Amino acid sequence: MKLQGISLEEFRDYDSILYVKADTKRLKAVEYIYGKKRVLLNKEREVRKTKSGGFAQSKYQEHVKWLKKQTLNWIEEHLLKKNVLRDKYDRIKIEIKEDRLRDHIWNLLKKRETGKRWFEKFRYERLEKGFIVGGKDKKSNEELLKRHLDKGDLVFHTEMKGSPFFILKESKDEKDIFRAALLTAYYSQDWKKNKNHVEVMYCYGKQIYKRKGMGVGTFGVNGKRHNMVVKKMELLDLIHGKI
Description:
Number of domains: 2
Order of helices and strands: HEEEHEHEEHEEHHEEEEH
Shape: elongated
Distance between the termini: 42 Å
Number of strands: 12
Radius of gyration: 26 Å
Number of helices: 7
Structural class: alpha+beta
Helix content: 25-40%
Largest sheet: 6 strands, antiparallel
């Protein structure tokens, strides 16, 4: 898929992006939703061309001036038409050369921009290399693993039921693996109920599966699982900001 108007980093970081490109003659609006591209608008206004001089050339110039004056209304008419745009986008990008026109369109659309990267909807922590992101409940666990899990990610869950899923992205460093396990344990029901050591398993994203009939937020694991015990003292240190 060829990206238009956005960078690869933006494509990866935002769940929903709106890109608008406009000038006197053309209006194009493209949205990227959960990695899928859709052209919403691709409009072109007819501008009569003439190589004639005299009266014909004068009429052509008047026509272009009129089009320029009507450009804002033309863009608004199509762009803000009912059911063209979503209610909100995580990111909005506008490519319009004329400052006044660009500013006006941005003022019309800026209320639709949340400014949130996809992982900000979850629990997350930035690392020196990569980041950790985890679910908050069954629904967000489902969304996290279905939409944002890559085969090479590490996935964390407690052995006892009632745990969020956490994902470690772009790192396999031992200290980052421990940090992801620590957060998984801290937000688990095991820790909340027992206040003791918590056993955490982790595996690769490619081992995770979802079968028909599995409940929301429930997934299975194929193959070998790694286990580690997060100690009570380590969890208390996290609470007191020591680690």
